[in-house]
Amino acid sequence: MISHLRREYTQTGLCEEDLLPDPVDQFRRWFTDAVEAEITEPNAMVLATVGPDGQPTTRSVLLKGADARGFSFYTNYESRKGRELDANPRASITFPWVELERQIGLTGTVSRLPRADAEAYFKTRPRGSRLGAWASRQSEVIPSRAVLEERLAQLDRQYPGDDIPLPPVWGGYVLAPDTIEFWQGRPSRLHDRLVYVRQPDGTWKIERRSP
Hints:
- By secondary structure, this protein is an alpha+beta fold.
- It has a single domain, classed as Roll (Pnp Oxidase, Chain A), CATH 2.30.110.10.
- The protein has five helices and nine strands; from the N terminus they run αββββαββαααβββ.
- Strand 1 (about 45-50) and strand 2 (about 55-60) form a beta hairpin.
- Helix 4 packs across helix 5.
- The longest helix is centred in the N-terminal third of the chain and has 14 residues, at about 25-35.
């Protein structure tokens, strides 16, 4: 049954002349399209990291910034992805915008954002999310859901107002891309793949790759 699932892609193709010179500007253009198409969580992205043992892992996280530095997200430094990034600061990201028959893939080097950036972003999160960042020792094995519920209740009592500090193990990362691929679905699975490749002088070269 699964093998029989198939749809034909019908959207307009992607040509070299369609692309902006800067891949971050091109990303913003496509991201705006995704927002306007009302895709559920258009900033959701699949982040792939690799541990010291060579085992890759993936998970969905939310993009929180895209600028000249790269693509930013926030998490617990002691989570599995945090530990893997400490050991191997290389990662890849995919934005799977299936509804638009598009995806964007990035590869690059990841580094931690300044603490000031994390503090500024943390203050914008809903109160429950800020308490949750304290309550969850991310990726740790726990005996039951009740453990989380009790931690959250205790923190709710500890911080009754809106003044909730940033946890010391929580912060941001930024992926500085080496490559950014813009993928557009085409009929007969002959998709368009246009890839920005960073050159040694910091400029970008655009390559078309076979699907």
